[in-house]
Specification:
The complex is a heterodimer of chains A (552) and B (166). Chain A is of the alpha+beta class and 552 residues long. Chain A is built from 18 helices and 21 strands. In chain A, strands 16, 17, 18, 19, 20 and 21 form a six-stranded mixed beta sheet that branches. Chain B is globular, with a radius of gyration of 16 Å. Chain B has six helices and eight strands, in the order E-E-E-H-E-H-H-E-E-H-E-H-E-H. The chains are: A alpha+beta (552), B alpha/beta (166).
Chain lengths: 552, 166
């Protein structure tokens, strides 16, 4: 993974010192609340319902075991012993005290980590497919480009006060797991003429109040022009994005109001001026960044060794976990393991300091000391030997981390909601739990099959409810918490936005509503048809009829 | 008078910002001044401004595009860019474009809600002088230019991005 050199370290040290000074001035009353606000946000610090919330950047979701141990230490030392994985591959702490934050950031800097630009109206953490570099269906490893974008976007002097936040995702795999099409800029690594690798760029995707699928602005951009293309897009957005209304300030509204063709014209004009400037990427820089993500020292092994197949036959629980949580790897004899953090009774994405330590140890032992956080709030060990899968599973099981519901209905994506977040209209964690309790039979879950259920506590949509196969949104109805249900969303290659099924429901009705929806699906599906495919075939009406018939 | 700094010191400020576009009579009332006039004023009263015996510069608000004055850049010793509120980032792009796109050689000045914590980025984007808000301490502001030793990007002060320097 990427390692800092003297320049990176210096910049980070400068940033920590800068924020320490800003925090001191704020505490001394020399910096007003309004003026401190964007400064603290650009250092990841929110003021929340109960305490500050600090969001730590995990560039494209990659973490080393050393960093994991530091995160465990921080959870223990500055927080209440746990951390939270976010839907953008970052980590949040819910309980640090403001005065401790500069020290916490200094601790993080020791392991090349920070909280820079994890919030505020600036370019946020660049995200990617959590299987990058290990997936069999990958055109090229996206992480080198993510790192190039990370550096370009960190402390960019022109784009620190954008109209609104700005999110970029890069995807190099055929099966898009990065929700690329619902980002302000979505970048697909593609093959152009003469087999040249380059980028297809979408703009104006996003969730929130106005969910939009991104539109293609360039079908092929040469590698060397990546940064100048991004800079041109950002420049047009910075100048022309709306600043009169925060809900209309994202680039998706600008693209919609300008029209994608006109917007593209403006970008091309800006791009022409800088296209061959010093910002043009060099082969040396691409090579330098790619070297950090060179394949680890894989052994020459074969697929499906006896140590694996024997255990698959003899241990039903292991086999269940294997069939849900283990995916094929590009190198023979290796697998990609996802550790699912969606246990009933635990808030989706929450992880304890002890679990962080355990994962660090296990990754050292089984996966070259590296892990990734997925946007579905789980952890990936990307390079596990197949003959060691059983041992790893045993170890996970002994720490209660062997949940085998990955990708199933109970692998809920969920924001912190009204229990923690000051923006939320409604709670989301208890909804997740009530659904998990309803569907507590694993056999039933596997019969239902692949299903994404997403819950957001308000229309800011941190739980990505628009792209859930089943989406649940907390709404405020005359001071009461209600929940709106939508169907048919997807964040995959054929991205689509869910459609609202009808009037919203009270909290206690939700598990039954989900059960009814699942019942309709099971009745109507053909053979192995996935929920999303059945939905696309039969439409929303059969679901609607059943759900509301029952309510009457 | 608001205090003016460059990147290393507090400096004299011979210029007065005409905050709102009034009638051209003002020029007769105060002769021999150095005025930074609003874009509207500058466009409407070219003739009167040409006859004026003091120096004239122009300021753009954050929603005004420098392309409106590209024909006249050589005659302007200074262009000021306004920050109506410090969190409005458009003037960063305007400063950069004045240098990069329009090759403006004169002084670029930040006016308006100009605060200590944005000065470093402003300097990177091509601002040279800063009319800091009345409550800002000039000495503290001067420290801002040392906030970072270097950055990753290609900027006006360091056109070579770090990846070509490391």
């Amino acid at each position: 993974m990427y390692r800092y050199d003297g320049y990176d370290h210096q910049m980070l040290a400068d940033r920590v010192a800068q924020f320490r000074d800003q925090t001191n001035r704020y505490i001394d009353g020399k910096l007003s609340e309004t003026e401190f606000l964007p400064l603290r946000l650009q250092n990841g610090l929110y003021v929340q319902r109960l305490a500050p919330m600090l969001r730590i950047a995990v560039p494209y979701g990659m973490l080393s075991s050393v960093q994991l141990r530091k995160l465990a230490y921080i959870a223990n030392h500055y927080d209440k012993g746990y951390a939270h994985f976010t839907t953008r591959q970052n980590i949040q702490y819910n309980w640090p005290a403001l005065v401790d934050v500069p020290d916490l950031l200094a601790d993080l800097a020791e392991v090349e980590m920070h909280a820079i630009q994890t919030s505020g109206n600036c370019i946020r953490n660049t995200t990617t497919d959590q299987f990058a570099g290990a997936a069999p269906d990958e055109l090229e490893d996206s992480r080198a480009y993510c790192e190039i974008i990370r550096q370009w976007s960190s402390f960019h002097p022109e784009f620190a006060y954008l109209p609104r936040k700005f999110k970029i995702a890069v995807c190099g795999t055929a099966d898009d797991q990065a929700a690329t099409q619902v980002h302000d800029i979505g970048i697909y690594i593609v093959k152009g003429d003469n087999d040249e690798i380059g980028f297809r760029i979408l703009v104006g995707g996003g969730l929130g109040r106005t969910p939009v699928i991104g539109k293609e602005i360039f079908d092929f951009v040469e590698k060397k022009h990546l940064l100048t293309a991004l800079e041109a897009i950002l420049r047009v957005y910075n100048r022309e994005g709306r600043r009169d209304n925060k809900y209309k300030a994202r680039i998706k509204i600008l693209v919609r109001e300008t029209g994608v063709d006109e917007f593209k014209k403006k970008v091309i004009q800006e791009w022409a001026l800088i296209k061959d400037s010093s910002l043009t990427l060099t082969d040396e820089e691409i090579d330098r960044c790619q070297k950090f993500f060179d394949a680890p020292n894989y052994q020459k092994l074969g697929n499906s060794p006896e140590q694996l197949t024997d255990k698959l036959h003899s241990n039903v629980l292991f086999a269940a976990w294997h069939s849900q949580n283990v995916k094929p790897h590009k190198v023979p004899g290796y697998s990609i393991v996802t550790v699912c953090f969606k246990q009933t009774g635990v808030a989706p994405g929450d992880v304890t300091d002890r679990q962080l330590e355990q994962i660090a140890d296990l990754s050292d032992h089984y996966s070259f000391g590296e892990i990734r956080i997925s946007h579905k709030q789980n952890i990936v060990m990307a390079d596990v030997r197949q003959d060691q899968l059983f041992e790893l599973w045993k170890a996970l099981e002994s720490e209660a981390m062997a949940s085998h519901n990955l990708g199933l209905l109970t692998d809920v994506i969920c924001c912190p909601g009204g229990d923690f977040c000051a923006l939320a209209n409604a709670k989301s964690i208890p909804i997740a739990e009530s659904i998990q309790r309803k569907f507590d039979d694993h056999e039933e879950l596997t019969t239902i099959g692949e299903m994404n259920l997403n819950i957001s506590g308000c229309m800011n949509a941190c739980g990505h409810h628009h792209v859930g196969n089943i989406g649940i949104l907390g709404v405020d109805k005359k001071g009461e918490e209600y929940y709106q249900v939508s169907l048919g969303g997807s964040s995959k290659n054929n991205a689509s936005l869910g459609k609202i099924i009808g009037p919203s429901f009270a909290q206690e009705e939700i598990p039954d509503v989900v059960e009814t929806i699942v019942g309709v699906y099971k009745e109507k599906r053909n053979d192995d048809e996935k929920f999303i495919d059945t939905y696309n075939r039969i439409g929303i009406d059969p679901f609607k009829e059943k759900v509301y018939a029952k309510a009457d | 008078m608001p205090k003016l700094i460059n990147k290393s010191a507090v400096i004299d400020n011979p210029w007065t910002v005409m905050k709102v576009s009034t009638g051209p009579e003002i020029l007769q009332v105060v002769p021999g001044k150095n005025f930074i006039v609003p874009l509207q004023f500058w466009k409407l009263y070219q003739e009167e401004l040409n006859e004026y015996d003091g120096n004239i510069a122009v300021w753009l608000d954050s929603n005004e595009n420098p392309e409106q004055i590209t024909g006249e850049l050589d005659s302007l010793p200074l262009i000021a860019l306004n920050f109506p509120v410090f969190s409005d980032g458009r003037s960063y792009t305007n400063a950069r474009e004045l240098r990069q796109k329009y090759a403006f050689k004169g002084e670029i000045r930040a006016i308006g809600d100009v605060l200590r914590d944005q000065l470093y980025y402003m300097a990177q984007c091509g601002f040279e002088t800063f009319e800091i808000r009345h409550d800002q301490e000039p000495e503290l502001c001067l420290d801002a230019f040392k906030d970072f030793e270097t950055g990753y990007q290609s900027t006006i002060t360091e056109p070579t991005p770090l990846f070509r320097r490391r």
